[in-house]
Design a protein that fits this description.
With about 450 residues, the chain is an alpha/beta fold. It has 17 helices and 13 strands. This is Sugar ABC transporter substrate-binding protein.
Length: about 450
Amino acid sequence: MRLRTLTALAGALALCLTGCARSGSAGSSSRTVTYWLWDSNQQPAYQACAKDFEQRNPGLHVKITQLGWDDYWTKLTASFIAGTEPDVFTDHIQKFGQFADLKVLEPLDDLGIDESAYQPGLAANWMGQDGHRYGSPKDWDTVALFYNKKMTDAAGLTAAQLNGLAWNPGDGGSFEKAVAHLTVDRNGKRGDEPGFDKNHVKVYGLATNGGGDSDGQTQWSTFTASAGWSYTDKKRWGTKYKYDSPAYQSAVKWYFGLAKKGYMAPFTDYNSQSNQANTQIAAGKAATAFDGAWMISTYAGFKGLDMRTAVTPEGPTGKRATMMNGLADSITKNARNKEGARKWVKYLASDECQKTVGGYGIVFPATPDGTAAAVAAYRKKGIDVTAFTEPVADKKDFTTFSYPITNYAADVYALMHPAMQDIFGNGRSVTSLDQTNDQINLILSQ
């Protein structure tokens, strides 16, 4: 189990934090702040912020290192053990609990972070169980339904209809009807027509992003949340997960049932490296896909495709739902240039830097002005991002929620990853999650 791995890692870190030689990251000095991020699309925006920061702080230099997602977390974890960690790094809420528990993060209480200066909830998510702040709000994202307009037009579905869809775990509602109608088999039969061949589908109504592991961000989370379910017993730092809830299991059973009916691409079509939902859309294998705001530019860049977006469907609660994730900048406990790191993180969280980043039209920065700059930048590119921003502005019709923030996130993933793959790929009953949930809660109780 990952629990053993995590315990071993904690031991190695504890020894290193007290006894490792501080060899230092390449280029680290009293005049250099080392900064790591994983998104190559965002690097130019942060280079621009670094240039302005250096002008405001003569004598300080920001050295930016960009790594791919998988390499990023592997090398970051290894750097904590080897004593070569960066001064500052882009942090993910999914990893935050583990890093806070391992005490490798520097408290940021003295930076003067005002929670009201950012989009609601973003700053609060980075408070540890000990009451200290460990992350400075950076950006945010939500999930929406991307669709191929040529395919939806051919199916007779208008933008108004796609933005007005609703679902339920019984018959799937208008959402399932739309997905079925968008599905076409090799003989040209649509999913809702007599004679449809679910075993030989040419175009699926909905692409797949896999089983969703423990969070289901771009898979089932919009459905489980709009059914009234939440991951844990508390909004933050929960002590019990609720994957054994009937509301959760009925939503998941219905969602993966779309693949059994032939309306959603099967698990065998998914590959986390080479055939994600966006790849299926680009290849013309699917008409729609749920995906995050970080993918806006990717979908907009598909040659020959007119890609649009719609809000998530309304659920049994009468509301639409989307995860609202937010990244942050964290300082490492053993940063070699803590003074410079604090100045850099405070600047990254400022409206000045956030508006600069927003102007590149790549992500939605955490401050309202930064968000407005991003919306304007997307508009100049001819991209309408309303489906992503509306859920944040409209609390009456939308519910936004965060990644589950708990201890032992790596262990939760280690248990839920194969469990969800089994349900999606092998047809295992959703009630098997009762046992998985018990195992997870046993770990959390330790």
